[in-house]
Amino acid sequence: MKVIAILIIVLTGGLLIYGIEDMPDWGDPNSPANSHVSPKYIQESLEKTATPNIVTAVLADYRGYDTMGETTVIFTAGMGCILMLRKKRKGEGD
Amino acid sequence: MLEYIISKYNFWVYVILLLIGLYAMVGKKNLVKKLIGMNIFQSAVILFYVSIGVKTGGATVPIFMGDAHAAHGHGRAIIDVASYINPLPHVLMLTAIVVSIATTGVALAVLILIFRRYKTLELDEIMKIRKDTGV
Amino acid sequence: MATHFPALLIVIPLISALFVPVIGWWKKGLCYPLVVAVLVVPLISALGILNRVIESGPFSYYLGGWAPPWGIEYALDYLNGFVLVIITAISLIVSIYSKKSVEKEMPEKVVPFYTLFLLLVTGLLGIVVTGDLFNVFVFLEIASLSCYALMAIGRDGAPLATYRYIMMGTVGASFYLLGVGYLYIVTGSLNMANVSELLPSLYDSKVVLTAGIFMIVGIGLKMALYPLHAWAPNAYADAPSAVSGLVAPLMTKVAAYMMIRVMFTVFKPVFFIELTPVTTILTWLAAVAIILGSIYAIAQTDLKKMLCYSVVAQIGYIALGIGLANKSGLTGAVLHILNEAFTKGCVFLVAGAIVYKMGACNINEFKDLYRKMPFTMSAFLIGAFSMVGIPPTCGFFSKIYLIMGAITAEKWVFVVVLLFSSILNVIYFFRVIQIATFETPMPDYGRDKPYDPVYMDEVPLSMLIPIQVMAAGILLSGIFSSKIISTVIQFVIPVDF
User: Fold this and answer.
1) Angle between helices C110-129 and C241-261 (to 10 degrees)
2) What is the mean pLDDT of residues B22-28?
3) Contact A15 C206 (CB under 8 A)
């Protein structure tokens, strides 16, 4: 098993290190990630959503659907644990 | 070469963490150690996303403090984009952290079921029990 | 109302999944009718969506009114509508089947079971209908978590098989998330249509190549593509019958849908065909999957495990069709998704019926089963015909298209692989049918005494009707396959093939 593990590590590590080269520098304010979608969030969220915290505005308003999915994930995990672990009241369960 | 490592050192950190987590998931025999490896692996991905949103040059957290009431509804105050960091990766990672915790919870419940059945949590002992009892 | 079908599709099962525990812990018998009634609504919505796409072309739906790429968008086109109808139809049929099976296998866990059933259907529908890359990850995790919990309560080896599935499934989802992050770094957007516009100028960037490879590997882990298939046989075999009847036809095929989306909508086809050798590697892995899956299936004595190896082989067919990347190949792959859904649904429900009656499904104990359960075994026969590829079932048409795709691409090796695998399929399916039909248990007394009369001992009607509906679905989709291709599938193919 250790041999397979080392092989997977070498392959994945090689691929990741190969991909580092073209990335934008850390903290560059003009990288594509910082200049395509997010300036509009920063500029307009206060007047459109009246929330000082931009992260809350995006989480609950622009991308509220993802938040609904996230609460469903928690509910699913809770129900899964109830399904797996609940024992019968009397006698033995399993 | 040194400058190449220094200008992108956040990526090197997350690559090393990801490889440690992946090795623990595949190479360790104890089931709980595999779970911890999974957690390290997911934390590495989360760190990677959060490090995307940083802006150098004195940028601060994306919360409007103080002048919020001045700008609220009374015309637009000038908001300088370069002084607030990118909020979108933080939003995505809030969801990803919750998903990671939920998966850990379900995995722990499955571990309880395994322990009730085989009375051990080492993979090679479980395989031996399965071979002996023909399950 | 009709304009909001896309939102209704997700919201109704989700809200009902919150109501099922409330109603169920008050009165347990009300769970099952509620679940069946709720699952009719997504079927109507999916048919309405497909109808609208066929009449007026693809459309989108903005959630919350925010325009993309600042908000989340549903992008509904031919491929979406097609897969949505399949998912909703199969989930409705399996939910009707599930009542007796759940009552026999896990009677005290009915309420959480149905909750997780509805959440699994919600997750699968959410993956297919959305047009935003991160939203796919969230719904993928909803579907996966409910799948893990539902599978862990099966028979003996279920918890260990589920744990291995959790490990490999989480690696797959995290690799997909990593790929999305890389795409976000270079383009700055998360919307599928927006990213596909911004990407072509960046094709020679190493980050884009790494992103593509991570997404394909992650989706391949979820899809049980060889060599990442190790979790599939044990996990599906030991799961409860209703769960394997729902998950085996759908989960891997939704992952195949994701692969078609990533390869042909987000990255344009030229990236994977000419600039990188990904499609070539994909076709070779698919060929190995087909041969090895069929060979392992022959060696099994447990019916469900044999069917699971058959799933691995059939995913090889779909991956071969995607990797050939020409018109016939992709048509064959999409038609095979339809075929697989109905065929695997039919045979896994038959296996569940056999477990219901006999308690286990060892093939060597199937003697005289054809006289005891004639309707069930005839449905199994139709499923076997479809798997081998005998007309007029749907399997014949999808295999013809795959073979034509291999001939057009002039890769004769794959033609040989496809034909050889049909022979292997014949071996392992007809072995089951032979034992069930022609072998009878040896009598203890002399030869001239007649055998004890064997009475027909079928499963209850609520399990029998869904099996027959699935078998009818296989036949109907085969007979109407050319109409399906001309109205829906031919618009799925990207224009430059």
Assistant:
1) 10
2) 90
3) no
Domain annotation covers residue B52:
yes
Strands C73-76, C59-62: pairing is antiparallel
DSSP C121-132: HHHHHHHHH--B
pLDDT value at B5 more than 70? yes
Spatial distance between the Cα atoms of C375 and C353, rounded to a whole number of angstroms: 11
Q: Residue type at C350?
A: V
Any idea which residue has 């004195």 for tokens? B58
The complex scores an ipTM of: 0.92
Runs of H (alpha helix) within B8-64: 9-27, 31-52
Q: Are B113 and C159 a contacting pair at CB < 8 A?
A: yes
Show which subunits contact A, needing at least 3 CB pairs below 8 angstroms: B, C
In chain C, residues with a C-beta closer than 8 Å to the C-beta of B38 are 167, 170-171
Indicate yes or no: CB of A74 within 8 angstroms of CB of B27: no
Whether residue B67 lies inside any domain: the answer is no
Residue partners of B65: CB distance under 8 A and separation at least 6: A52
- Domain at B99, CATH number: 1.10.287.3510
Please write the tens of the pLDDT for every residue from B29-73.
999 999 999 999 999 999 999 888 888 777 778 887 765 555 454
pLDDT tens digits for range C376-404 = 888 888 998 888 888 888 888 889 999 99
Q: What is the mean pLDDT of residues C4-29?
A: 89
What CA–CA distance (Å, rounded) separates C308 from C296? 10
pLDDT of residue C271: 81
Token pair for B68 = 């919020």
Mean pLDDT across chain A = 84
The contacts of residue A12 (CB under 8 Å, 6+ apart) are: B18, B19, B22
The answer on pLDDT for A89 being more than 70 is no
pLDDT band for A4, please (50, 70, 90 cuts). Answer: confident
Query: Token pair of C171, please?
Result: 């690696």
- Which of C440, C420, C423, C265 shows the shortest CA–CA distance to C365? C440
Give the tokens for residue C331: 């048509």
Per-residue pLDDT for C161 more than 50? yes
Q: Contact at 8 Å (CB) between C248 and C307?
A: yes
What residues of chain C lie within 8 A of the CB of B89, using their CB? 184
Confidence of residue C432 (pLDDT cuts 50, 70, 90): confident
- How many structural domains does chain B have? 1
Residue B77 lies in a domain: no
Find the domain containing B87 and state its range: 2-56+83-133
Q: Is residue B65 part of a domain?
A: no
Residue B72 backbone class (left: φ over 0; alpha: ψ -120 to 50; beta: rest) = beta
Residue in C138, C4, C131 with CA at minimum distance from that of residue C72: C131
* Interchain pair A34, B62: CB under 8 A: no
Pair C188, A37: CB distance under 8 Å: yes
Which pLDDT score, from 0 to 100, does residue C450 have? 53
C-alpha distances in angstroms, C182 versus B7, C175, C268?
18, 11, 17
The Cα C193–Cα A69 span in angstroms is 22
- The rounded distance, in Å, linking the Cα atoms of C252 and C144 is 11
Q: Which residue of C132, C156, C166, C180 to mutate against B (max B Cβ within 10 Å)?
A: C166
Crossing angle of the two packed helices C327-358 and C374-388, in degrees rounded to 10: 160
Cβ count near A35 (within 10 Å): 15
Six token digits for residue C239: 């799961």
**Closest to C48 measured CA to CA, from C91, C8, C15, C19:** C8
